[in-house]
Task: inverse folding
């Protein structure tokens, strides 16, 4: 009897051991495809970019000459690059700030029941589903200095034509306008979803507390929307910092470098001037800026963001 | 403090009439409980009183003020919501004083009021916490404190205990009763729980399908239910009600008007032996099921009248055994054809039934 028990115990132990090892391996086996893809298409390119940023290479030469930090020192003393940084920051902050504030106002207005409001929501959202290339073409036509719709409308009300895309004074603002036009729909929709998730009885309680509308907005709506605000700001900053299509098609970074931003600058240096090392160094700086932005936002805002 | 009057109030949602021509007076300083099953219109009545819904017809008076067109903030009421509706981004203190700040009450006075109220509801040490750090009972107290600090004429409570566990609910029930005694303000309380209604209210208003079924003190509702709905709604298990035909051969000489006869499960007796007590119906029965709850036992039994619940405080009988159920004549409740208890009907029935004492 005891013998049978002992042998059963051994069997069970052996069984358990094999189970344990498979249980240990299984999660890794399951996520390995994702890890492989992640390493191949994310980690490896980043590593290779960092490697290239310390070299001088023109894409075709068989040798990559190690130049240390020369690419970085060159970049930081380059006046064009400083302009690119300033342009990128102006573009990013202006477009994110405008998109978020206009979307929030629209969401507050459109967050009602009724056919008109649903129609408006759908209309505002429609630019989001149009490809950026089409958007760029459309706005190039609208903003054409001589034949564009915008100037025609301005002339109608007696305002002189504005060289939207052809003057260094207006070009960046014009691109921001396009970004805001395209971004508003998505942001408004997300804000409306956020507004709808705020419990209605909170507003009823606030009403009984005799809360004035502006105070209700600042003390109730904004804090309750903070997760949405946080999400849209982060996504907006990261996307805007990487703007490329509209610039490539509408202004090609010009006139006189006035709309040249980070990613377009990297593209120019890498794929037009074949200065791969130099472009990679700019890429590394972009990576650092975006990482810092993300970390700052997660650290600072997460403390003030209310998650339910 | 104020009396509340509903005059011919109706409410229609998309052709669905949820409140049907209700006229009610809620006494000044009373603890009135609106009770009824879900969809009976009790919450709608409460929301119309608060001003969140506008009645389709009729007038609502709070004190001597007609409030039909007054916004909720001007009705001098405070409400405790079912889900508390605390402002999640503000501390307990912020929640309590938010209304005061809105009304521009000076800081010193605010501090004093908040301190006072927090003391009453026992939140003094939690004033700087956010609601998500509090337990259900504490959140409930914050909601109460927020309502109390406004010193309203009327307190409206919408199922405030339904999110608490059973033990806490019992405790909060007592606390609310004491609070009402201390404040002396009119309390209007909505619940679907008959135990809450019975234990807390000075007066109970039973509603069904948007119509008031009965309005009376809890003990009155229990002892003299106005109709079959009230009889079956109050009491656990509900009153056993049968059509008069079920009593044929058991109880003769019933008056014409008595179309239904009911009796409460706790008024019937159950025993394993026949006793033949005078002025009592005795029925040989079979036990179908029983719930032993410790102090009491609830039986489901079957006999020639039908299937009925019996509540007994004696030691439990074995399941599937046969037994004898006794129902005293004086504990029978007759109801008319319209399912209401006709005035005078019961007395005559009891007398006659007792005289004719069959079985």
Result:
């Amino acid at each position: 009897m005891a013998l049978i028990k002992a042998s059963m115990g051994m069997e069970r132990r052996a069984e358990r051991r094999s189970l344990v090892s498979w249980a240990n391996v299984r999660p890794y086996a399951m996520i390995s495809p994702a890890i492989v893809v992640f390493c191949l298409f994310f980690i490896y390119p980043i590593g290779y970019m960092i490697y290239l940023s310390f070299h001088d290479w023109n894409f075709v030469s068989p040798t990559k000459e190690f130049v240390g930090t020369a690419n970085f020192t060159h970049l930081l003393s380059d006046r064009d690059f400083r302009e690119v940084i300033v342009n990128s920051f102006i573009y990013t902050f202006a477009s994110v700030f405008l998109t978020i504030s206009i979307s929030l106002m629209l969401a507050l207005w459109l967050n009602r029941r009724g056919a008109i409001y649903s129609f408006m929501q759908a209309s505002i959202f429609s630019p989001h589903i149009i490809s950026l290339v089409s958007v760029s073409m459309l706005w190039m036509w609208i903003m054409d200095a001589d034949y564009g719709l915008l100037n025609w409308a301005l002339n109608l009300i007696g305002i002189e034509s504005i060289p939207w895309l052809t003057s260094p004074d207006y070009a960046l603002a014009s691109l921001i306008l396009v970004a805001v036009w395209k971004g508003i729909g998505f942001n408004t929709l997300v804000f409306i979803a956020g507004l709808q998730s705020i419990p209605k009885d909170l507003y009823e309680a606030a009403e009984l507390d005799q809360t004035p509308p502006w105070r209700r907005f600042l003390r109730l709506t904004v804090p309750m929307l903070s997760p949405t605000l946080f999400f849209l700001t982060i996504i907006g900053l990261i996307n805007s910092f990487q703007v490329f299509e509209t610039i490539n098609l509408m202004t090609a970074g010009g006139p006189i470098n006035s709309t040249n931003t980070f990613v377009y600058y990297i593209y120019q240096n890498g794929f037009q001037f074949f200065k791969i090392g130099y472009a990679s160094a700019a890429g590394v700086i972009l990576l650092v800026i975006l990482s810092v932005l993300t970390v700052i936002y997660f650290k600072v805002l997460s403390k003030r963001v209310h998650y339910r | 403090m104020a009396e509340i009057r509903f005059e011919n109030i109706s409410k229609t949602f998309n052709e669905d009439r949820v409140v049907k021509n209700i006229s009610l007076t809620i006494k000044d300083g009373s603890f009135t409980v609106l009770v009824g099953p879900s969809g009976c219109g009790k919450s709608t009545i409460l929301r119309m009183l608060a001003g969140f819904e506008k009645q389709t017809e009729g007038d609502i008076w709070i004190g001597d003020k007609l409030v039909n067109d007054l916004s909720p903030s001007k009705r001098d009421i405070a409400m405790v919501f079912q889900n508390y509706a605390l402002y999640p981004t503000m501390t307990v203190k912020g929640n309590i004083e938010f209304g005061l700040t809105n009304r521009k009450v000076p800081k010193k006075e605010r501090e004093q009021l908040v301190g006072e109220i927090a003391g009453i509801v026992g939140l003094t040490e939690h004033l700087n916490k956010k609601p998500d750090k509090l337990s259900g009972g504490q959140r409930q107290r914050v909601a109460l404190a927020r309502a109390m600090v406004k010193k309203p004429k009327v307190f409206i409570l919408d199922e405030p205990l339904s999110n608490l566990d059973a033990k806490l609910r019992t405790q909060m029930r007592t606390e609310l009763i004491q609070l009402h005694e201390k404040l002396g303000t009119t309390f209007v309380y909505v619940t679907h729980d008959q135990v809450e209604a019975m234990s807390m209210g000075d007066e109970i208003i039973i509603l069904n399908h948007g119509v008031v079924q009965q309005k009376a003190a809890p003990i009155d509702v229990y002892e003299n239910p106005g109709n079959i709905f009230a009889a079956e709604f109050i009491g656990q298990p509900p009153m056993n009600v049968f059509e008069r035909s079920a009593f044929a051969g058991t109880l003769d000489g019933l008056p014409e008007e008595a179309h239904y006869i009911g009796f409460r499960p706790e008024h019937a007796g159950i025993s394993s032996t026949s006793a033949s007590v005078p002025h009592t119906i005795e029925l040989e029965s079979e036990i179908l099921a029983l719930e032993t709850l410790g102090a009491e036992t609830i039986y489901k039994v079957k006999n020639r009248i039908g299937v009925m619940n019996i509540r007994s405080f004696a030691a439990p009988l074995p399941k599937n055994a046969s037994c004898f159920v006794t129902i005293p004549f004086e504990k029978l409740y007759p109801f008319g054809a319209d399912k209401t208890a006709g005035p005078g009907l019961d007395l005559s029935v009891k007398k006659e039934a007792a005289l004719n004492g069959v079985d």
Summary: The CA atoms of residues 175 and 246 of chain A lie 7 Å apart.
